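hey can u check if this looks right to u? its 281 residues, i copy pasted from the old doc so theres a chance i mangled smth
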Amino acid sequence: MLSEDLRVAEDDRSTVPGRRRPWGLYAVAGAVFSFIYLPIVVLVIFAFNTSRISTWPMRGFTFKWFGEMVRNQDIRAALQNSLIIGVTATLVAMVLGTLCAYVAHRYRFPGKRWLQRIVLLPMVVPGVVTGIALLSLFDFLGLPLSRLTITAGHITFLIAVFFTSVFARLQRLPVELEKAAMDLGASEFGAFRKAVLPNLRLTLVGAALLAFALSFDEIAVTFFLTGTSNTVPVLIYSMMRLGITPQINALATSILTVSVGLVLLGTAIQRREIGPPAVEQ
């Protein structure tokens, strides 16, 4: 009833005589969104231009640049590296982030709040700082730059993706699930595996899609940790030194489509994960 009354009151206010719509605010919002998204629209449009030169109006419509992109050996090698790094970093971060979230939710120990802040720190620190710090660490340890170092760099910030998603889901699960499983003879690990983990499946799938999209698009950390193994974003950056070509537009359009699709799918899956309110321990 309260929500219905508020909605009715809102409708009444919107129809008050003399009340004007904030057209100025709408104009500012439209200008901001145009500034953000119009360059992306232009990039996608020129990916289908028949001319090698980005000129307007377009001379024709074609898909040939996507075919040349697929046949390019450098792009295929970079795509393979990005897929291997993204999948590996996502899986490792899933295990570490889930365990950290479970420990932070389940146990009380000194420095618990600091653990939560430290796990989230790589998402706050600029990627350039993280990349330089990891580069210094690997140089000190004598580790050569490779796909392994890039993967380690991606894991540092992907852990936070799983930590926040899993911790929020655990807060909504009743603690009686584990207690009931342990009363029936399950060990502590068995209770987690049989009672808790099945309730985290959608959360983990959604977080994995988001994490993979972030890893696939990452350039700041990757730029400092890449050796001879280029990823797709780093390859695009190196190709742009010779100018923007239709192949770059086609590659960027493909990455945009995959990334947006993964983010939307991951967000939709996480929204389906509805649980009961948290029960105080």
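DSSP finds 13 helices and no strands in the chain.
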